[in-house]
Each structure stands twice: as structure tokens, then as C-alpha cells.
Amino acid sequence: xxxxxxxIESSQTMTGLFARRMLAAIVLSGALIARxxxxxxxxxxxxxxxxxxxxxxxxxxxxxxxxxxxxxxxxHDCSGLGPRSSGAPGRWGRELVARGYVVLIPDxxxxxGHPDGVCTDASRSRNAVGPARRMVDAYAALAHxxxxxxxxGRRVAVMGGSHGGSTTLAVVAAPESLQEPLAxxxxxxxxxxxxxxxxxxxxxxxxxxxxxxxxQAVAPLLILIGEKDDWTPAAPCVALARxxxxxxxxxxxxxxxxxxxxxxSDRPVRFVASRVNxxxxxxxxxxxxxxxxxxxxxxRRVVEFLERTLR
Length: 311
Prior knowledge:
The chain is α/β, with parallel strands linked by helices. 22% of the residues lie in helices and 25% in strands. The protein has one domain (2-309): Rossmann fold (3-Layer(aba) Sandwich).
């Protein structure tokens, strides 16, 4: 894989396609081989836009020892954490705990009426658990992580794949004004972020459809995506990263040759016609499946990125 202009890593030369702008967000081993020890399942408390208090189930995994450890909040994909889950959050959780990280995984779907996820749900109720809503969950999980005695609150990252990756982009997008509901949280944000195959065509940030403007992150951000991704294409993410190169936190991106969406999966590549896909003709159908080489490389890159940014 060669180094492209502007410090962006890519498998091929790709022309950028700037995305339309989204509305403003609504309110919220190694030296240490540790045993993945699941704490009793708890919950985080958030206040919904209508003032209602919600309890979001959250699983916490931690290494052995007193800490304090760095931590990663993992945001699940559109399949959620129920019986139809892709299993990717758990795979990443095990990898990170084995390397000395506390992992928190909030469940944004189950208590909001989507226990089976929203991958094939095109109803309006899908919007109620979109990235703008899930930003609140991420910041509530950050506050919870910082309250734990075994977590170093200065070293907490956010990470997500697909739907969770799009949420990650929203979470660390610089606030457009002091009036943004989450501006205060963003100023004291996560220390780093990793977005796996996110939807970059409709993300938060100061983008414009004419190809001008920039995406600016409030923390170091790494994007990993597959070259053959037909659900969240790589080209808009390359454009997003290029637009950020003159900002305080230039986005790093890696495009994996021949890899599809969910390259970190342990399941075979397959096309499912019922998946909601704004990038497909008719709005349905997407391909997902694991790529062992991309998976192995992504572990290495994520760990190196976290070690570098969570100092």
C-alpha cells in the first residue's frame, strides 16, 4: 500500500466526492495478556431530546489488575447487539482487552425497540436511533468511563463500525457553533477515534455539495475501509480525509484492496438484497464479509494508532 498525496494512505488513486451536509445533531499478547473479565451488565443514563430519561444497557470488559487503564467506547453497527449481531464489537473487545484496554459497549437499539437492528428497516423509526441520536450515548459512555476508578479518564477513545462508524464521525466532528447542543462535550471530547467503514456521504461537519469546505475533527481520527465496499463506499471517505489535511487533526485513512464492508467479520462474503443501502440502485442490497488480511492489518493499525494517540 503506497502513501498518497496529502499523507492519505490508499490502495489506488481515487477522486473525491463531497457529501451533502447533514442537519445539526440532536441532544447526547503483548507485555500484558489479560483475561477478558466481564463486569456485571449495567447501564448508562441519558436524557432524551424530549426530556425523558433513558437507561442504555452497557457492557464493560476490563483487563486484570487495578489500572488505571486506557479505555475504548465501541459503538455497534446496524445489526445491534442482539441475536442478529455481526459480532464485530465483541471481536474488537476481546482484542483490545487482551492489550490492556477497558472496553465499554453501549446498546443503542434494544431498549429503543430495535433488538434485531436496523440493517433492513427502512421505516421512520430507524431515524430515532440514527448517528445524531447515538452521539448522546457515546458521550454518556465517555462520562461513565471517566467515573470508573480503573479507567484513566484522560485516555478514552471511541470506535465504531458501519452505523457505529458513522456515529463516530459525528461524535468527533468539530462543533459548528457554540450553540450546538453537544459543543461542551466535544470540547472535552474523546482523546482519539477510529471509524471502520463509516458512511462518509452524509456525515456531520462543514461540508457542502459543491465540493468545498472541510471536515474537522476534535481529536485524532483513523478511518479503515474496504476498496469494494458497496454499502459505505470508500471514495467519499477519501474525500473527507483529504478535506481535513490542513486542520489540527488531519484524518488518517487506509483503503484495503479487494475488501468489502465488514472486513473485520469472521463470516463469508455475501450479498443480502434486503439491506437498506442509500448507495444502491433502488435503495436496497449490500455486500458484507470478512477479509483475513484486512482484519489482521486493522488490528495492528488500530493498536498502533491508540498507543500513539492515547499517551
